[in-house]
Amino acid sequence: MNMFWYHRDDIFAQSLQIGFKTFSVGHLAWLFSIAVVCCLCGMLYRRLSESGRDNMRKGISLSILALEAAKIIVMGLFRVNNAEFLPLHLCSLGGACTIVSAMWPRMKGMNGFFAFAFFPAALLAVVFPSTTMYPFWNFYCLHTFLYHALIILYFIIRYMAGEIHPKYQDMWLGYALIILVGLPVYAINGAFNVNYMFLGFRSDVGILATLWDMVTPVLGRPGYAAALALIMLIVVHLFYLIYTGIEKIRTNHR
After folding, report:
1. Cβ atoms of 26 and 20 closer than 8 Å
2. Separation of alpha carbons 40 and 212, rounded Å
């Protein structure tokens, strides 16, 4: 089988060392490319008419749909165990909400979900990817980077255009969503030995693996989940401070 189609099960079964390291040159190139595309598309989006903006939003959402359809087809063709690919990650919900938001961009509450749940989660997913066992030129690696990049792009273009103004109450709305999604996912992980939202067992993501190693020997999996919830509370507050700082800069330049 061509390594482009290799799934992690194939890689682990053959003990292959074909992956990449976090913050390697290739990984940094991905991050730089995502940042450049988001900035350029954000500048373009600001100049578009309302119909043009509508088409761009829907184009991003259709791209997410196409990626998910391609993933399902590839998994079916190669008979990949799909237990790890059910839509139970936070960014799975983020992708679905991107499609909904593209259709109804003024839906109440949705902007808070993006500013404090989906955008931070997608950003963390590309900065600390869970696909480091793959080579860059691999379907699952490309899918992961592109999927999360599209969620990031959707938020950035709307934020740059002033369509999203994150508020303090939005921060708590986003955090509440993370907790409300995380609670049943935590139970599902325990019942079926899966690792959605990285709450089931030790993750391949270095920063989460370190947290797991520090906490679980003393407090077990419940302690790890509680520590992760506390970290996410700190993260959403940091994002709120960043948004507040950007708003102040914008105000001073008006």
Report:
1. yes
2. 38
The H or E element that residue 211 is part of is: helix 206-252
Number of domains in the chain: 1
- Greatest alpha-carbon pair distance for the chain in Å reads 59
Q: Are 114 and 154 in contact (CB under 8 A)?
A: yes
Evaluate whether 205 touches 129 at the Cβ level (below 8 Å).
Answer: yes
Q: How far is CA 63 from the centre of its chain?
A: 15
Query: Model confidence over 38-89: pLDDT tens digits?
Result: 999 999 999 999 999 999 999 999 999 999 999 989 988 888 877 767 788 9
Task: Name the token pair of 160.
Answer: 């740059």
Q: Is the pTM for the entire model greater than 0.85? A: yes
Domain range spanning residue 152? 3-14+22-252
Write the DSSP symbol of residue 85.
Answer: G
